[in-house]
Design goal:
This is Mobile element protein. The chain is an all-alpha fold. It has one helix and no strands.
C-alpha cells in the first residue's frame, strides 16, 4: 500500500462553509489531483453540499 500526496494545495484560512469547500475542491484540489486519485473527506457538515457529492 502507498499514498500519493498532492503538493501545493492551498489551505483555507478562516471560516469554511459548503460553498467555500466546494469552490476549493473545484478550483484548487481537483485541478492538481492525479487522474486516478481517491479523495476522502470526513462527515463535517460543510462537506455535504449537493454539488460536492
Amino acid at each position: 500500500m502507498y499514498f500519493l500526496c498532492v503538493s501545493q494545495v492551498n489551505l483555507v484560512i478562516g471560516s469554511v462553509n459548503a460553498k467555500v469547500f466546494h469552490a476549493w475542491i473545484e478550483q484548487d484540489l481537483l485541478p492538481k489531483a492525479l487522474e486516478q486519485a481517491v479523495i476522502a473527506v470526513d462527515n463535517a457538515i460543510f462537506h455535504k453540499h449537493s454539488d460536492t457529492l
